[in-house]
Hints:
Blueprint: E1 13-17, H1 19-30, E2 38-42, H2 44-48, H3 52-61, E3 66-69, H4 72-80, E4 87-89, H5 98-103, E5 106-110, H6 113-125, E6 130-137, E7 145-146, E8 173-179, H7 191-209, E9 216-220, H8 222-227, E10 235-236, E11 262-267, E12 270-274, E13 279-280, E14 286-287, E15 292-297, E16 314-317, E17 320-323, E18 333-336, E19 348-355, E20 358-360, H9 362-369, H10 373-378, E21 386-388
Parallel strand pairs: 1-21, 2-3, 2-10, 3-4, 4-5, 5-6, 6-7, 6-8, 8-9, 9-10
Antiparallel strand pairs: 1-11, 11-19, 12-15, 13-14, 15-18, 16-17, 16-19, 19-20
Helix pairs in contact: 1-3
GO molecular function, one term: alanine racemase activity
Active site: 44 (proton acceptor), 282 (proton acceptor)
Keywords: Isomerase, Pyridoxal phosphate
Amino acid sequence: MNTPKAGLLEPQSRVQVDLSAFGQNVRTLKSLTPTGTRFCAVVKANAYGHGGIQCAKTALENGSHFLAVVRISEAVAMRDAGITAPILLLGDALPEQVSFLATHGIRASVADIQTARALSAAAQALNTTLKIHIKLDTGMGRLGFLHPDVVIKESGQAAGIGQAREIAGLKGMEVEGTYTHFAKADMIDKTHVKGQLARFNDMVAMLADMGIHPEIRHAANSAALLELPEAHFDMVRPGIAMYGMAPSGEVDITGHKLVPIMSITAKVIYVKAVPKDFSISYGSTHVTAAPTVIATVPIGYADGYSRLLSNQGQMLIKGQKAPIVGRVTMDFTMIDVGHIPGIKPGDDVTILGTQANERITADDIAGLTGTINYEVTAGLTGRMPVSYV
């Protein structure tokens, strides 16, 4: 069997992640916390699309103490890659996973008493001890024990913090931490997040009254790390800001010099001159108003490039913006380059990032598609190869 020449395997579109910039972002964020505050790098969802293992290693090299993921498969991959730092599992832990969690230093989140009982029983059966972090729901409405003020006592689904009292007596578990997650820390109006903060402090005191004294209290996501110092506690837990993106349009990160670490590039694969009244792509949703030149770029919704960018997104070529015309298809997107002379196959196209003096950000794409920057990068499908610099 003949092996194809290396050139034949060169991708026509690719993702590049700047790990040097990522490390600098981590150091910048760490510098905003008091001495002794632990740093937990949230690298869930393949590090928001940037590469979980690579970003985890870089975060640790730049001073992170903990890592956080949601799926146990992510934690397994990190251990297989030789990462030994503590990992907090933000999602559900199952009894059958206790052996792996305990022996590999992975902390389980406990958000209800049923989970606590099941994990305790499994740990005792294995004669091991599992470190856990108790999740408190202070206003997110997702996972965690509730404050007594909002518990509907007659409900069979009540999950008040009073149930956590039992955890103090459960064997096979060590309560290492307790935490909450803010729903509106990324908004200018901090009323809601300060209410959550007050409930968190209140609930930590309730845990102490039950004989539960976690070593690590943590609450601050990226927005709270940047704008709410009183939420730093014993550990901060940033995500999006490490990747150089703002938590929302209401959080200004420019003063912190955080740098976006991802770029997406491609090469033009086909160029054609077309006349006036020529229709482009499925549904003929774009018809040329005058003779022009159309370039085809090998990226589509199968790569995670949103179909909502049809007829409204832009790409950069020869340092200029070129509009997307017609619908984004599964594998290809067409751009109008009639205003840019000399376009030919093989020319570099920037889909996300900077070219010359022009720039397209994840926020730009999110604004056009009605979503958030998180989804732009986390939604990449993995079909494009990723290189790290």
